Amino acid sequence: MIRKFRYGKPFPTDAVVKNVGQTSGMPPFFTVTEQDGGVEYRYTMEKEDCVFGLGEQMRGINKRGWHYDGYAYDDPHLTETRTSLYGAHNFIVVFGARTFGVFVDCGKRVSFDIGYTDPDELIITFADADVYFITGESVLAIVKTFRELIGQSYIPPKWAFGFGQSKWGYRCEEDIREVFRGYEEAELPLDMIYLDIDYMEEYCDFTVNRERFPDLKGLAEEFKEKGVRLIPIVDAAVKVKEGYHVYDEGVEKGYFCTDSEGKPYVVGVWPGDSVLPDVLNPEARLWFGSYYEEFLKQGIEGFWNDMNEPAIFYGQGSIDRAFQVVASKAGVNLDHETFNEVQAAFGSLANNPDDYAAMHHKAEGELISHSEVHNLYGDFLTRGAAEYFAERDPDRRYLLFSRSSYIGMHRYGGIWTGDNASWWSHLALNVKMMPSLDMCGFLFAGADLGGHAEDTTEDLMLRWLAFGIFTPLMRNHATCTARDQECYRFKDLGAFRHILSLRYRLLPYLYSEFVKCAQKGEMLFKPLCFEYPEDARARTVEDQLFWGESVMLAPVVEANAAGRYVYLPARMKLLRFTRHGVRERVMEKGEYYIDVPLDEVVVFLREGKVLPLAQPAKNVASLDDRHLTFLKFIVQTTEYTVCRDDGVTKSSLQNFETIKVQP
Ligand code: MIG
Fold this sequence. Notes:
With 663 residues, the protein is α+β, with helices and mostly antiparallel strands. Helices cover 25% and strands 27% of the residues.
């Protein structure tokens, strides 16, 4: 059951697709205080209560014990004490003495204090929002009701479930060819190579540097024939430059964000002086989306949208002030405080709230400050591209994912989880984030495998891939200063081949489960206690997940570990994927230590379930998903439903085949 409460004047976010009437009065369980336009929700938690959700966020699966902001923010230092990342996903489920869900639908900052100020208090603060209060029989039922409220998740084309290689630093055609050759010669599968900002001319969106990429169309076509697609990045900010068609047209049409007087609002991003498309204006976002055509006509079918929090290096006002501070201290004896002041002058430039406040959008003819709608920016920018694709070819699916997002964008594209680092803790974070993202509808998601910042190591890369084979978006990506981490650069290529090929063997299952979860509003990754709510031990497990209907995962996320402890909430069958085949062992409910060598993948098959497997393939196009074999833990004939779409159209997503599997 859903109840909706309105506070103040919320700006329409389009997060919700169902019409829910407003309820008057107070939501149950909460103490609500309204003051100076702000609202505070307070709930006293029982000792055993867990709080799940918040999508892209730091910390545990159980969010209790920290405070979080629903606030899209670009800061590449993903430390444990951060309170928000690139997206704002304001949905939680409290599970315990009472079980219920809350969605705070609001484009402004929302804060969740989940046992931080007081270990027993859940405090949610916001202003101008619609709050949806959801009850149901179980956490899973509540999630499903929420997902129906926000509409069906985006489903990319099938090839997008292949493995992709990326690095900021592939500068020219020859770099791309080298990556392709590297994978080919090492006999490692590959479906995508990503183009980061270096392909552009002076960091101008929708341009290609002709010296470094003399024939992008030719390259894209040649590679596509070999089964590998090129996926260019698109940045939010548009360079201020007369004669640059995107800038000129946007200015002429009034499609950029403005200052309070209505003049284009200039900020500093990659190309220096830049302007931001006013994506809250439906015409402006469709206009920006229509430029993707410049790539579509070159045979490119996939994109990643970056810097759309929107990330701002500096605002005009704040950089002037910073130079003034620095100039005023030239020649001065810098004691500790003064030196700090000088450092802070530049250190606090990026994504400054004052710069956001001074930027304006035009919404229904009125200028409104960006601060009122901040969290919607990345969502609406990405949506603009999706709306263009739908207009161009209503039935076709394209690959599209974004760095920033708000709930609602899950209908238009996927996300990657931003600039993590090559740290074991970020592998663990990747594991913990997947179920929260699923709760919020972001099924097509993944982290930079191997880690974005810093130097990775062979063992971290292998362990990360051994989890990444289960995430819908599977991409190895790193920053320009990190050591090269393409799989073929490492020593034990056999181990990489084995793990990557397992992704392709599992792809019919992953894809079928994904499509079913999207269509039914279910979660692909589930914490153990979502399936075993009565099991107190299951509630404390933060590093194991159910994956689709058949499998439980228990990835190794520790350096130098030869294996790990695993909790089985029920009888299951261990499946050990070695280089030489699959070994099986039935295990009773309980606690075990399991050996997991670096080149093996261990998962658990649930009782009464089967797991389809294909033969290894070098890319999705050459994958034979007609001849599946089944791993089984059954005593009677069991059915498994496979998605039999054509891989690219929306209409064919209704085609399923139910296969009968004998014990
Ligand atoms: O300020 O395009 O998260 O994936 O490699 C950095 C360069 C801009 C941030 C993205 C990252 C990408 C990088 N971008």
